[in-house]
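Justification of computing resources. Each target in the renewal requires a structure prediction run like the one illustrated here; the chain below, 164 residues long, is used simply to show the kind of job we budget for.
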Amino acid sequence: MCKKAPEEPAAQEPLYVLLPQLAHRYFSCCFVRLEKLGVHPGQVPLLLALNSHGGCTQAELSRRLHIKSPTVTVMLDKMERSGLVERCQDARDKRKLRIFLTPSGTDVTERVQTVVRGISAALIAGIDGGELAVFCSVLERMRQNMDAACASPPGMCGGPQASP
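Resulting structure tokens:
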């Protein structure tokens, strides 16, 4: 009879596994709670941007949120059909459309903020302020690193660098 080898403590999952798992769980939680408000989690940044910077053009929203312009167009179309936003012609430049929250959109945005604050509180439960500050600093640096890596030529993002 063979003896069973002692179990080793589980190794920490790599970042490329942990980050997608966390994002998936976060958005799943958001989806369930926001669905009751008729909002998709992907619409939250757009609602929040319009709440604080109403009157942006679609191009400005695209740049501000780092979302491709056609994606913003599709999102705004759905949100306009739901009565959350309205497109208004710019008074000085008739070619531009300015995007505003409707009164219903403003009300929904306030309720969305309550929901996402609650989810965020659950996300950071048990993490002290110092740990959170360091973590947020690290995440910001990672975002900057990804921006730089994705701005580099294809083939340069990830993987070992070729030596000259």
